[in-house]
Design goal:
Elements (H helix, E strand, L loop, with lengths): L3 H10 L4 E5 L6 H6 L7 E10 L5 E7 L6 H8 L4 E3 L2 H8 L19 E6 L7 E4 L6 E6 H10 L4 E4 L2
Parallel strand pairs: 2-6, 3-5, 5-8
Antiparallel strand pairs: 1-7, 2-3, 2-4, 6-7
């Protein structure tokens, strides 16, 4: 089962500093944002997507105020159709439940077959925020440290323009 402790252990092993804000469970980005007002760092939205046949999975990370154009994204990734992946797929691929999707779930993607994309506009931000495998905490870390984490766990990523 995906836990915050697993995230904390990996970040500490990599000597990555981070800030944790504890709060009541937050199921939406708007709700989570209400608990972290005034803290520096881009508020992110992480979406777990799939193609029509569920043969490819995508993790898209973007500013939480931005709306995704699914048609534009499907063109970028070369898929016929893109949609939100099911809770079942999320559990199978990253051992996460709905409302907790973040790059930290990639710790559990042993096949390393989830395609990770960042919207370019957030990559110049000094810090980003995510749920660390629980929706009762928000974790802030340096953008460069998030990339260090992904490199460490063997997950490739691509930066795209949305």
């Amino acid at each position: 089962m995906a836990t915050f402790k697993d995230v904390e252990d990996v970040l500490n092993a990599l000597e990555i500093s981070f800030q944790i804000v504890e709060h009541p469970p937050a199921l939406t980005t708007e709700e989570a944002d209400s608990y972290i007002i005034g803290i520096d760092g881009v508020r992110t939205k992480t979406m777990f997507l799939t193609n029509r046949k569920k043969t490819a999975f995508y993790l898209l990370i973007m500013d939480d105020t931005k709306t995704l154009d699914m048609n534009e994204f499907k063109e970028i990734v070369g898929a016929n159709k893109i949609r939100m992946a099911s809770e079942e797929s999320l559990k199978e691929q990253m051992d996460l439940s709905a409302g907790v999707v973040s790059p930290f779930g990639l710790l559990y993607n042993d096949a390393k077959d989830i395609h990770v994309y960042f919207d370019r506009v957030i990559m110049d931000e000094a810090r980003m925020s995510f749920h660390p495998n629980t929706n009762e905490k928000t974790l802030f870390l340096a953008t460069s440290d998030l990339l260090k984490f992904l490199d460490h766990i063997g997950t490739q990523y691509e930066i795209i323009d949305l």
